[in-house]
Amino acid sequence: MNTLPRAVVAQILNDSQAYLALRQQWRDFMNSERRHELKAEHHLLYLALCGKDWRRGFTPATNQQKLDNGAYNGWKMFRALAWLHSPFHEALLLAPFDGVITAEMLQNLRPLLPKISAHQFKPADFTPGSYPFAAYLWEGSPVPQAEERTHG
After folding, report:
1. H helix runs in 86-146, sequence order
2. Residues whose CB is less than 8 angstroms from the CB of residue 27 and which lie 6 or more positions away in sequence, other chains included
3. Sequence spans of domains, the chain
4. How far apart are CA 149 and CA 131, in angstroms?
5. pLDDT digits (tens, 9 = 90+) for 68-105
6. Which of 6, 21, 26, 125 could crosslink 132 through cysteines, CB 3.0-4.6 Å?
7. What's the predicted TM-score (pTM) here?
8. How far apart are alpha carbons 105 and 89 in whole angstroms?
9. What's the burial of 63, exposed, middle or buried (CB within 10 Å: 0-12/13-18/19+)?
10. Does residue 58 contact residue 20 with C-beta atoms inside 8 Å?
11. What is the dihedral of CA 35, 59, 42, 92, to 10 degrees?
12. SS3 label, residue 111
């Protein structure tokens, strides 16, 4: 599943006003000088809360020399997902949203996002324009859990 149905997004955000407030705050933030404070994990969180395919913001490295030097293991997508799933980074993750996104909303979103790492996949698994895992895992989706797909 690469996008979330509106009904699922509504359950996470609690009401339509929260969705509108999130969109407005993000728009204001992106048009301010503070936009440079945002990191990959903030963009991922915003897109996920809007129910969009957050993976499209991350392009796999294809330069063989960079891959040979470890660029794949340092790919921001893996780090951003780790931050999103980590309770230790919760305050830093929610700080730019000034209370529009609550810890409860984040807690409701976490089970829907795959918990993956660079050690589960190889660069060759990421063919141009595709990912070896879905953007969202929810009960209505036939997508297998990321833990089922590992390389030995």
Report:
1. 90-94, 103-109
2. none
3. 6-148
4. 12
5. 777 666 688 888 999 999 999 999 999 999 889 999 99
6. 125
7. 0.82
8. 15
9. exposed
10. no
11. -110
12. helix
